[in-house]
Amino acid sequence: MTDQLVGPRASVPAPGAPAPAGARAVAAPPKLRRRPAVVVLSVLATCLGGLIAGWAYVSSSTAQEVVAVRSTVHRGEVVTAADVMTVRVGVDPALHVVPAARLGSVVGLRAVVDLPAGGLLTAGSVSVAVVPPAGMSVVGVGLAPSLLPGEQVRPGDPVRLIGTPAQGGEVTGPQPVIGGTVVSIRPDADNGQTLVSVQVPARVAAELAARAATGRLALVLDSSPAGALP
Prior knowledge:
This protein is an alpha+beta fold. Helix content is about 20%, strand content about 25%. Among the domains are: about 65-125, Alpha-Beta Complex (Type Iii Antifreeze Protein Isoform Hplc 12); about 135-220, no CATH class.
């Protein structure tokens, strides 16, 4: 039997004994510190990302092209091509919006209610009603600011046009009164007056036009229970 030569073994210091001279000190491995706050934030970020992704999927799957209002259209005014636009939004099925394909069909219709800019156009908010209807006429009346009420007058408002005496004259007896409904109203930058188109019975249209030419009319705004064109 051949004896095996065994080389000298490195001496291993006993526990607690000082390290031999010239030996390298081995650093202890760093201890990992767990931060619960970081773990919680990571979980929340993951959940939030999932919610956002789900919301984006649902929104994209229910979004559709519909007609929206670009510029405010007041009740009774005609909708023009510049007043409307198409947008892609998610719409509640209970809301009867106008599809984008029908954008051209709403141009030329009249607003049944005030249409604020940025809102969606619904089927019942515009009408094909012709103004003036049978038996009615529309007369334009130019009025100075002092002959208009301080409250804003809008299309659809019931008004009375009352004859006024000449400048510096006295009021003698009852003044002529013609009732009607405002169709449109716009300022006239050339003369500082406001042009009010009023719908009146055809039988008094000629009288109102003649009195409007004299500039001796004042407009009175009345209460409007229904607030719509007749």
